[in-house]
Design a protein that fits this description.
The chain has 271 residues and is α/β, with parallel strands linked by helices. The protein contains nine helices and ten strands. The chain has helices at residues 5-10, 44-48, 77-81, 147-153, 190-199, 211-215, 228-235, 238-241, 257-267; strands at residues 32-34, 54-55, 66-68, 87-89, 104-105, 135-141, 167-169, 178-182, 205-209, 248-250.
Length: 271
């Protein structure tokens, strides 16, 4: 069998994930960790947050606020502004969640706010359930900037090799098991998005990739923006009747490809 010299030189590049954990850039900002402190009258972190992701607890307004990853763009401005270093972003890429409330990061008593991820393998490779062996995805960009879309596309490269998990993107929603949504959902794209969702045969799964798809991100205040799935559920009661509720939320601006991969594998066990 003939193998090109370049292929022999590069050798095997697919990471044995999740047994082997990826080495992420030191610049990567993953899941935040918050330490409970007495903030008093200080609100510097809230003032610098461009996405309105920090929320005061009405029962404890003088303590560290809760951070909503569904709104957070992971810019790190709040961590830099906090005079007590109560907010930190580590290398934990395990941020995909099954519920919207799971994206709320509450301050803890612990002193460690590094937010570093462990090396344990996640139990998501088990091929069980309806989509355990074959999971087809249709990607819909509802006004996105192409960052989340690019990080979805990169999963097909040899490092990630999405196909080895029995997961692949398809050209038509009629051939799909799930819609992978990105973008803040512009009003112009809203009808097409619902049409694509209704074209996916039951049982179907919705995966919201990126902060924009979850809450509208930085575009949420725009008049032509629906405000992600959060805004659709608030403004359009009919979407609840269509069960237009994500089974998996993957926050980030954009999320790391490893976060997206983990979220997609979690999604195939949602039905």
């Amino acid at each position: 069998m003939f193998l090109p010299k370049e292929r022999l030189r590069q050798k095997y590049r697919t990471l044995n994930w999740p047994v082997q954990q990826p080495r992420l850039s030191p610049l990567y900002m993953g899941k935040p960790a918050l330490r409970k402190v007495n903030c008093g009258a200080c609100s510097e972190c809230i003032a610098v947050c461009p996405a309105g992701a920090l929320l005061r607890d009405p029962l404890a307004p003088d303590q560290t606020p809760t951070l909503d990853m569904g709104r957070c763009i992971f810019c790190g401005a709040c961590a830099a502004a906090c005079p007590q270093n109560a907010i930190a972003f580590g290398n934990n890429y395990h941020i995909a969640a099954k519920g919207r409330e799971d994206l709320l990061v509450n301050p803890a008593e612990a002193e460690d706010v590094s937010g570093q991820s462990g090396d344990q393998a996640t139990p998501i490779l088990k091929k069980s359930g309806i989509f355990g062996r074959s999971f087809k995805l249709r990607q819909v960009s509802a006004g996105g900037c192409n960052a989340c879309e690019a990080d979805c596309n990169v999963l097909g490269t040899l490092v990630y090799d999405l196909g080895r998990f029995g997961v692949e993107f398809t050209a038509s929603p009629r051939h799909a098991d799930a819609i992978v949504l990105s973008g803040p959902i512009t009003r112009q794209m809203y009808p097409a998005l619902l049409e694509a969702w209704q074209s996916v045969p039951e049982p179907r799964v919705l995966v919201a990739v990126g902060t924009c798809a979850i809450s509208g991100g930085l575009f949420r205040p725009g008049e032509d923006c629906m405000g992600g799935v959060d805004g659709c559920l608030t403004q359009k009661p009919e979407v609840a009747e269509l069960n237009f509720i994500p089974s998996i939320y993957i926050p980030g601006c954009p999320p790391n490809p490893w976060s997206i991969l983990e979220g997609l594998l979690m999604a195939r066990h949602c039905r």
